[in-house]
Amino acid sequence: MKRRDFIKTSLGVAVTTALTAKPLTSALAASPIKVGILIPLSGPAGLFGPSSQNCAQMAVDEINAAGGILGRPIEPLFADVGGPPADATQAALKLWKGEKAEAFIGMHDSAVRGALTNLFKGQVPYIYTPVYEGGECSPGTYVIGETPEQQLAPVIPWLASEKGASKWYLIGNDYNWPRDTNAAAKGYIEASGGTVVGEEYLPFTADNFDSNLAKIRDTGANAVLITLVGGASVGFNRAFASFGLADSAIRLGTLIEENTLAGIGAENSKGLYSSAGYFANIDTPAAKAFAEKYAAKFGADAAALNSLGESCYEGVLLLNALAERAKSLSAADMDAIADGTSYDGPRGAATMSDRHVAKDIYLAEADGASFHVVKTFANVDPGKNCG
User: Fold this and answer.
1) For residue 387, what pLDDT is reported?
2) Quick check: is 61 in a domain?
3) CATH code, domain carrying 252
4) Torsions phi, psi of 240, nearest 5?
């Protein structure tokens, strides 16, 4: 073929191809939605980080495989917010203004949440996923974590009637989640006929609990409500058992999940209860299917499934549901349609009302190194949090 004929033929093929080729699908052609996923990878809550990252990534992969959010793939931007609120704010600001994140999902402590709502000021969607003290209603903020009205209001009376819990000692870390949770707990304890015989708050750095345990012993407490975080909870519960208190008092934790229990150890778990909206071994079709997918994706050596990690999975599901219903990633547009927005997750169907969700609450007792659900409270309302 002559060079002139070759060029002519090639141009013809190129034009024909351009006219007849199918366009790229919108999910492939569209720019990704950058989503900041803020989780603790260091600090007291660092043991929750690996499972949180795994669960968030699994939800991202599933939504992307189905076409993304509003036809755009999700690009997750993970950041460590296990340090002080000022450091977490800087990490979020870098993702928001520097990396152009269009939405945020946070699984971190309440002090960080307060700093971030003050930073975002309703300008970007922010989904907060873990257990917390209740009352959050900032613009553009949506909450799926358990509140004290869910974790404690049904559980404390049950422990009073079934386990004789009547003299309560309250111990937690010194910040707003433990203090506000215990303020609510006092009302539930009094209503169940019990009394609070002691209350104290410890720094995150606390690692010697001898004086605290002596106080618990001297008060004659037969129930202890624990709102310690991560490593502090592990250390306290180990010491509690070695001090011999497990024979005279039950323990109830609202942040004791599978990773924390593993750190506490089977030999130290007698009389230890946990209240949560999810455990890895709850016997429902949705939960079992989720656990099987997690194991298949990450393997037997992956970080243990737990309520905090799983909440990150549901946080991504909620972002998708809000965006698809609002047909927008605008926080203002999502605020307008938030109530009534639903999704199906490992905990079952969830519908947002008052920027929160009702859910089943499980009371589990430690059975060696695992949890055994002893009571299920169905569809517990999160209480009044907005307005």
Assistant:
1) 67
2) yes
3) 3.40.50.2300
4) -55, -45
